[in-house]
Amino acid sequence: MRQYSVKHTYIFSTFALIFFACILAGMLLLYNALAELRKINETQILDRMALYAEDLLLQREAMYNVSYMISTQIFFRDFYLKQDPYNDIVMLQEFSKFQSNSPIIGDYFLLYTNSDDVFLSTGAKTRFDFFCNTYGLMNPEGSLYETIMNTQAFSILSGITGNENLVVLIPVRFYNRKMGGSDAVVGFFVSPAQIHKRQNLFIGGIDGTSQLYYQGELFLTLQKNGGSSYIVDVPDDPVTNIGKMTLYRADTHDGLYTVVLALPKQPLFFYNEFIIVNTVYLLFILILALLLTLIVTHRIFVPIKKLINNLFVSQTALSSRNEFFEIEKLFEKMQNEKTISETMIADLTQEVQSLLQRASEAKDKAVRREKSDIEKIISYIDINLTDASLCLDKIAHEFHLTNRYISKLINQKTGYNYQEYLTRLRIAYAQQLLRGSNMTVAKLYESAGYSSSSYFIKAFKQISGSTPTEYLKQINK
After folding, report:
1. Is the dihedral of CA 243, 245, 250, 256 positive or negative?
2. Which domains are present in the chain?
């Protein structure tokens, strides 16, 4: 009897150690699964935010298109309007057609330089003071008119209307006109409610507060679904934890727009309800539940984990919102199935790979578009290299890109920064003039795009190793 008891005591002790070791392994696997799911959720939020930020950039381009169309059509030229009072009616009819260019545009207006008349998208023409009163614009001591007239680039004014609308200003320079100040300014009233709708379209269902920045300046704070207001500085990392909040950051590809989303920090289920609830249960229920978890983890989680790894290694290639939601549907389908076979995993993996293939093609298309941008910029520099006023700001304005982005493209293409590349082009052009014409050195620097002869000679010697006079003597030997 003693031998039997000792034998079975040993057996049950060994079984208990193995069993609880399995339970511990299951709990660790569950924790790993929950942590991985949280990372997946963070990635999904960042992808949606990135799409939303790029959409803001598209709306900016739509407003720029309105400015461009105004600058190229004769209906909007000031001399055309002065020819006949009836031309005002024709111009207002054309001006009202831009309403559908962007879903966030409300009313908009056009204000000419040195004029007090304001043309409205509603088909009306009014004086500036009456315009301010009608739209509830704050105009302390008439300073708003000067602010609008001094607009030299795309800018956003906030806090100047009684209904919290934003006012977006874009200068208009008429086509074939010499460089200088703007001829007019087109302004758009943008309602936060319309931006909120666009946000819901891309980040719908997420409870939190978002902050929108343009070139690092905060211009709008939006609360979603009753989320508490939480004003913060722009975090450096895509995901940052501050106290009980988690901050998510997404930027546009050119860095113009930044979206920051503040959400309540979501603790892992493993650390909260899971332990509290199961410690209340009877030991037998606890063991049974954990054993069940071990089985599910072994049979279902492992193949799903393989699929997740295959999927999210290439998730950064997802550039389409439709593909993003297609993948979500695949996971919902897996969750609704009671059992998941290897065949199902293979089929779903094949579908995901097909989606990723389309995403890769979209990425290649974006690369081709970037290559097109640099070719246009290089061509523009080659054509205008003799223009002494050619500078990085002028190129950025011409192509509606940032200086930093243009410098990056030029460096990738040529291996030089913008200034060094332009200098080499101009010196090569000057050498060509010396070889093929009778132009004197005194007039050469102006033809090569320089406004200073001393700076030209210094640059010429730095690139070619000799002064223009010495170079001319060398080629005439």
Report:
1. negative
2. 73-194 (3.30.450.20), 385-476 (1.10.10.60)
